[in-house]
Amino acid sequence: MTRFTSFSDFLIMGNHGGYVWSAYGLCMALLALNVVLPLLARRRYLNELARRQHRERLP
């Protein structure tokens, strides 16, 4: 088990910090997109459905 002597050593992770933290960042961004995009699509769908129903009710 690797032990870090300081917080900066933890962030650098034996000169692999850039790879590790960018991989974490990319993973978190993709997870966020998996939550946000369906919510936005649902909102667009419901707005379009409401507009369509409103048009059909007009004489």
From TrEMBL:
Location in or out of the cell: Cell inner membrane
Pfam family of the protein (one): CcmD
Keyword Transmembrane: yes
Topology of the protein relative to the lipid bilayer: Single-pass membrane protein
Transmembrane portions of the chain: 20-41
Record carries keyword Secreted: no
Keyword terms, alphabetized: Cell inner membrane, Cell membrane, Cytochrome c-type biogenesis, Membrane, Transmembrane, Transmembrane helix, Transport
Family indicated by similarity: Belongs to the CcmD/CycX/HelD family.
The protein's role, per its UniProt record: Required for the export of heme to the periplasm for the biogenesis of c-type cytochromes.
The protein's name: Heme exporter protein D
Gene designation per UniProt: ccmD
